[in-house]
From TrEMBL:
<dbReference type="InterPro" id="IPR009057">
    <property type="entry name" value="Homeodomain-like_sf"/>
</dbReference>
<dbReference type="InterPro" id="IPR018060">
    <property type="entry name" value="HTH_AraC"/>
</dbReference>
<keyword id="KW-0238">DNA-binding</keyword>
<dbReference type="Pfam" id="PF12833">
    <property type="entry name" value="HTH_18"/>
</dbReference>
<protein>
    <submittedName>
        <fullName>Helix-turn-helix transcriptional regulator</fullName>
    </submittedName>
</protein>
<dbReference type="InterPro" id="IPR053142">
    <property type="entry name" value="PchR_regulatory_protein"/>
</dbReference>
<feature type="domain" description="HTH araC/xylS-type">
    <location>
        <begin position="241"/>
        <end position="338"/>
    </location>
</feature>
<dbReference type="InterPro" id="IPR018062">
    <property type="entry name" value="HTH_AraC-typ_CS"/>
</dbReference>
<keyword id="KW-0805">Transcription regulation</keyword>
<keyword id="KW-0804">Transcription</keyword>
Length: 343
């Protein structure tokens, strides 16, 4: 992760962005309006102190894609999704609810780069967008006003990652003095296309997964496999899914590459390449993700840090504490105290 000194820190370095400084974080933010009642927000922030936020939604849809860092979204019923780099969240109020539901967010300490799209005023949206929302409402998951997760295609992820990190001076973006100049108009057209791709990918991927249950709930999920999912991401064959399920079910295990390759019916090098291509991260990274999620759930239940360390495969609590801090941005002691304070 790049240090704050390596990032552009002033408006002169990132045109179109504005400096943002809040009690818990600071950095750069850019707000765009690709079309009527559509708000596209880009952020590159350094969160100095973990904090919670919340927002009420009367209608429309909110979606985000985390490009770097971590973000947790949760609904009033306790269902939540924990997002890391390359993962997105989507939230749409259920039409059957009388009171506007609240979307809660948790921002851990560390750098956060993300892009979000908020649609409101559904009557003013285009026919294609309204049809997409109607198709979403026909899904079983639409019965719940709970955040859900989605994963972008590799090409879209790379495109957005590059756009949100582009500084001034690399290309012509942001060089216009007024929005009436052709370059600015072209830039906005490009952002309109990106916003539509973001919306289409979130609706399509989530619908394609056909996952009928609400988002992962800390109270209901079995601690032994915190990342296990009944759905299979696009591009993942059943052999790769078997490997992922093995790592999720036994995150503390000492899995050898040869063992996992036999399970996948592939060569070790083929498994490494295809697993990263299908899931967007390496085998080791995914196992660490599973371990940390399992550890987080154990800390929520009040298990001691020493016991949690052994449960997730660490011989020494200090090594576990280092890994936990590196992953979540806070020590397990601080996280455990915070969970009990909130609950």
């Amino acid at each position: 992760m790049a240090s704050p000194q390596q990032r552009p820190s002033s408006l002169s370095e990132r045109r179109g962005w504005r400096a943002a400084k809040y009690p818990h974080c600071e950095g750069q933010v850019q707000n765009l309006h690709p079309w009527r009642d559509a708000h596209l927000t880009l952020c590159d922030l350094e969160v100095s102190r973990a904090y919670h936020g919340q927002h009420q939604f009367h209608e429309g849809l909110y979606l985000c894609l985390v490009l770097e860092g971590r973000l947790t979204l949760s609904g009033v019923d306790g269902a939540r999704v924990d997002l890391s780099a390359g993962q997105g969240g989507i939230f749409r109020p259920a039409s059957t609810q009388s009171a506007p539901p609240t979307l809660k967010s948790y921002h851990p300490q560390g750098r956060l780069r993300c892009i979000s799209l908020h649609l409101e005023g559904e009557a003013s949206q285009s026919l294609q967008v309204r049809r997409g929302l109607a198709n979403w409402d026909a899904l079983p998951c639409a019965r719940h006003s709970s955040p859900l997760s989605w994963t972008p295609g590799r090409w879209l992820h790379q495109q957005l990652d590059e756009r949100v990190r582009v500084p001034d001076g690399e290309g012509v973006r942001g060089e216009c003095e007024t929005p009436a100049t052709p370059a600015c108009e072209g830039d906005m057209l490009e952002w309109q296309g990106i916003a539509l791709q973001l919306l289409g990918a979130a609706l399509k991927r989530r619908a394609g997964e056909a996952q009928e249950m609400p988002a992962f709930s800390a109270a209901a999920a079995p601690p032994a496999s915190p990342l296990a999912s009944p759905s299979r991401p696009h591009g993942a064959c059943r052999h790769l899914e078997a490997v992922r399920q093995r790592l999720a079910a036994v995150p503390h295990g000492a899995h050898s590459l040869e063992e996992l390759a036999r399970l996948a019916c592939m060569s070790p090098s083929g498994l490494r390449h295809k697993f990263r291509q299908a899931f967007g991260q390496s085998l080791g990274s995914y196992q660490r993700e599973c371990r940390m999620r399992c550890a987080e759930q154990a800390l929520r239940r009040g298990v001691s840090i020493q016991q949690v360390a052994h449960q997730v495969g660490y011989a020494h609590a200090c090594n576990f504490a280092t890994a936990y801090r590196r992953h979540f941005g806070v020590s397990p002691q601080v996280a455990r105290a915070g969970f009990h304070r909130v609950e």
